[in-house]
Specification:
The structure is a homotetramer of 238-residue chains. By secondary structure, chain A is of the alpha/beta class. Chain A has a domain at 2-111 and 175-223: 3-Layer(aba) Sandwich (Rossmann fold), CATH 3.40.50. Helix content of chain A is 26%, strand content 30%. The first copy, chain A, contains eight helices and ten strands. In chain A, helix 5 (75-87) links the parallel strand 3 (61-65) and strand 4. Strand 10 of chain B pairs parallel with strand 5 of chain D. Chains A, B, C, D: InterPro entries: Class_I_gatase-like, ThuA-like, Trehalose_catabolism_ThuA_prok. Chains A, B, C, D: It holds the Pfam family ThuA. Chains A, B, C, D: Residues 2-215 form the ThuA-like domain.
Chain lengths: 238, 238, 238, 238
């Protein structure tokens, strides 16, 4: 199992608040707690954003964190990531990655939401306790301060809704949601604003680790499409 | 369109608090605001709980409120209501009806949840704004005091999740959920504890009216089942 | 209710077989049987493909048929149609429209499938008989000759699967599938190869008419997104 | 991982055709190919149908085959199996088990279908190729002769539809379908009429083995329900 953690890696270079929390970058912090996989990282400012064909062809699950530079991700790389998801690569999209080109491409919707930076307490409730992504988690866990994300979240109805967030200021959010596109499994997970130490939280880490295992690719190839003239079909019709 | 509002009708006879709010019974208050349909009522203590075969065969949508006497509903009536739902009758289950025999029968699960009677403020968020049941409703509406219902709610994953509730005390709940069983459409809607004037709230009334229209039966008959030997099939195989 | 029927309108000009079946174009034949709505048409070779902002802003449900010239549809028009779907416009995608830019945009997948032009008999089975789109239809209906479309169909799992096709040559296909994107309802319906008189079939017409009614927009506006600082939230947190 | 294979075990004792195919019973044949688990069997005519509390409490995944004696299964055992599914035990229901008390209990519907015993060829198509239950399977596989099951199949819409069957005589069927109830995962798989050697087919065996792995229980306990007064909630509201 090979996991690639992709991070925009800009906030950490530009903000003392963020670099104090994530001195090596959000990607390195995430990479540090992934278990049961070989982990590599890739960032926006590397050639091909670190996502060459070779890297992606050798990635089983891709984790994506981006925020302020979504538009700088080249469309050719978005095409490449989408194709790999359809072929079976797992994709875990975190927090402000809701607005990334790749997530919008795979959802087909605007992916917008309400937000507020006001140190709201967040309580994340498990609504599908038997799901592999909820394995080992309590009925709810709290993040003492986070950015608020509120409904309506403009995504297709999740195929599985695993978590719902409650916010101190009065909002709710579908915080843990699964989708399938082609052979690929996708998990969106809400928490992780850059100004809070969210990726040091053990429950958050557990969710992401569970999601990595859940999203591992099938060994089935991508299906055959196009003109279909099998002998069986022809013989049957005689 | 014919709507039957079923109510257990016990709290109103036993509690001054409840009878002050609903002097004619919860069923009469609900019946009073249903639009675009002929409305009748039925209650637990009537013969056959007011749900004779004739009544049910002439009901397009049945609304169900029950709480303290679920066990007194006879199984033969539960069978009858289930059969009518499978044939196409709509069913709207309100609040503590989550624990009714008919809802548990149709869900196949325990239908349990967390609850607290502590005058929590409830904020009901629309998460599927284009759904017919959300028609004309704001992004959220509030009930200043309600009983809290919290996750995990032990139902199958809703086919459509229309509303999520936020509670002041820190909980969330899947408050508006649709299901189909056979030809019948089912809507569960959370609000409506007997000690609060919830069914006088115009947004609550709007939701229930929308649900009645959404749940109206198809004119298609119930499908044909069993041994199937159509001429077409036989001839095709020669 | 305003319906716009969009057609590529190329086969009819280039093939005698097709123009014999649809002398006025597939769009005119579809427009001729739509009931309960004002119907207009639009085609690829009109300015803006007949889909100006004014036309789209006044369209409640858009029907889409395209096949050989998907690439000629300008991206700016695809953007515009997508935006209108998110705002609530219904969209019915027919047959080879599975490969249109707009359908692939809204699905997020490749939308590919198997196909064969061999006069297969198609039998379309209703698997959700209580659904509004199945209203008035028999358990199955047949098209004596059609192009075969076979699984795997590379779409997200349909939110509702209304019809499954059986083909004489040995294949199955998810033929009638619903999706929601933003406020908009989408229905994909398989039949309608240009060399067969499929849009003269009364059952096919019934499905499309039902879908038009089902896909009508909500009157709710598109939700509010972005920075969210309501007074209620602020006051609550003190 | 502990698997219990439950079989009615009546046809094998009463019919020479069946006992020739399954001399030790269908349960023993199924038990013989399950991999990666300790496997035990249980049958209708054992005390408590072989499903004592001890047996069920030690079962991770239960496989169910029944047909002609569904009514002889005691309700108290059905209650017990349902409770274990809600707690997390996986359940795989095979073929005519569609009409078992436990499957109808968990579905909430009639679970009826069309059938024909006419040696139809069955072709089982994978419509969700990336699903763990489809792992290692071809795009379709065939059973040269089987009982036909045809739509409409009176179940709730499957949460995941993995396989669709094509039958020579003109029918289709949703043959591989997943559901969740409480913490438990359920898979219905169509093939396996007692007069055909279906459980010797390697693709059928692969599906059932995949399903066993997919259905393994979560280690999360069943959620807490009822009156909920956590200190956190109370303190928050002051």
């Amino acid at each position: 199992m090979k996991v690639t953690v992709w991070n925009e890696y800009r906030h950490e270079k530009e903000s003392a608040i963020v670099s104090n929390i994530y001195p090596e970058g959000i990607h390195q912090q995430i990479a540090s707690f992934i278990e049961g996989a070989d982990v590599a990282t890739a960032t926006l400012d590397e050639p091909e954003h670190g996502l060459s064909e070779e890297v992606l062809n050798n990635t089983d699950v891709l984790i994506w964190w981006g925020h302020k530079a979504h538009d700088e991700v080249q469309d050719i790389i978005v095409d490449r990531v989408q194709q790999r998801v359809l072929e079976g690569m797992g994709l875990i999209v975190l927090h402000s990655g809701h607005f990334s080109k790749i997530f919008k491409r795979l959802m087909g919707t605007g992916c917008d939401l309400k937000w507020r930076e006001a140190d709201d307490k967040e309580r994340i409730w498990t609504v599908m306790p038997g799901h592999p992504i909820a394995e080992g988690l309590p009925e709810f866990f709290e993040l003492p301060k986070e950015e608020m994300y509120g409904e309506h979240f403009d995504i297709p109805a999740p195929e599985e809704l695993v978590f719902i967030s409650w916010f101190e200021g009065g909002e709710v959010f579908r915080s843990g949601a699964t989708f399938k596109r082609g052979n690929g499994k996708i998990f969106y997970f809400r928490p992780g604003h850059e100004t809070y130490p969210t990726y040091y939280d053990s429950n958050v880490q557990r969710v992401i680790n569970n999601a990595v295992q859940w999203a591992k690719p099938s060994t089935n190839g991508y299906p055959t499409y196009g003109n279909y003239q099998p002998l069986e079909s022809i013989s049957e019709k005689e």
